[in-house]
Each structure stands twice: as C-alpha cells, then as structure tokens.
Amino acid sequence: MVSLGNSWDALLADQFSADYYLQLREFLKREYQTNVVYPPMGEIFNALKATPYEKVKAVILGQDPYHGPNQAHGMCFSVQKGVEPPPSLKNIYKELEAELGIKPPSHGYLAKWAEEGVLLLNTVLTVRAGAPASHRGKGWENLTDRIIELLDCRPEPIVFFLWGSHARAKKALIQNPRHLILEAAHPSPLSAYNGFFGCGHFKAANEFLNKPIDWALE
Which residues are catalytic? Predict the structure, then answer.
C-alpha cells in the first residue's frame, strides 16, 4: 500500500483502503502496464511526501499532470531541472516578478516551494501520455477532495490559490473562515490576461501569513 513517510499516512489511511481507491489502484496497474503514464509511478505522491500536513502554509491547486515526456514529477506546475518551464509556469514567474521583484529562475523545479510549505497538489495525480484529462473520473478526485477537506480543518490559517475554473470549483470544500481563498484566471497563455496577471496573489499570501513564504527559487 501507499507509504508517504509523514503525517499524511495516518490521515489518509481510510482513503487508501477504501473501495474507490482499490479500484483506482487496479486501473492504474493496467494503465502503467499498457500505456505511457505520467508521472513515473514512484513520483505520483511527491507533493504529499514533500509537504507534511502540519507544514502546509499554502496550497496551489492544479488539474492533472503535464502529459508530455519528462515533465510531470508529482508536483503541480513543476518540472524537473533541465526541462524547459512550460508556458503556464513562465506566466507564474512573470506575475511573481511583477509583485515581489523575484527574477524568473533558470529552471521550472518547484521543490523549494514545497519545502517552504506550499502543497503543489493536482486534483488528478496521473495522466496518459498525450491525453489530457484521461485519468479524470477514475477516483483521484475522491482522494484530493479529502485532502482539501482535511486542510480546511487545520487550526492554522492556510492560503488556497485557486487558478482557473477547475480549481475554483473546489472552493465549496473550503468552509473555514480562518483560511484565505485567492481566485483568479488560470496562468495558461489562453487565459492569463483575463485576470491572472495583476492578481496580486503572492503578495496577498505573504501579507496574510504569520511567516511569509520565500518564493525565490535561486
């Protein structure tokens, strides 16, 4: 079974033994055996492994992983060093520079944000190569919705970044008024000029948190 090596193990134990997850697991076994699936199997839960429950200060909510080769590694919007940052991530960097003066890094690897307490969570954690949304509706949403609900129960304030209609649809899961919900258009080139650029989210998050996030990646 799944072992994350931190507080998420106990919090999600009931999910990993639930019927929906066991069915999802069988589906994934077949998918990884018969198709190219991203991220690699051992990297599916990297976001949870990198940011334990009690360390979460902010959540950036993505959709499903990148579906091109050598991109997805289990953290939303992030790619491994040596891989060209995708357009959405480049736009995130542009907004970060406009708000906080942080120069775009030479890479797209966001693990440092995860260490800072930013949970880089996709709502669906796997995807077939070249087929966006191919693993939606298979059970991942049950698990990631539960993760959001558990974070909503945290006594410490958390910032939720909801970019795009898919992420904003999860707003109903966040009920506790102590948390800060930041909504904007998706950073994709198709929508970034419709409200992502100029959203002020990084600055707003740091003003809200008792201990601001160091967004610099280099």
Answer: 64
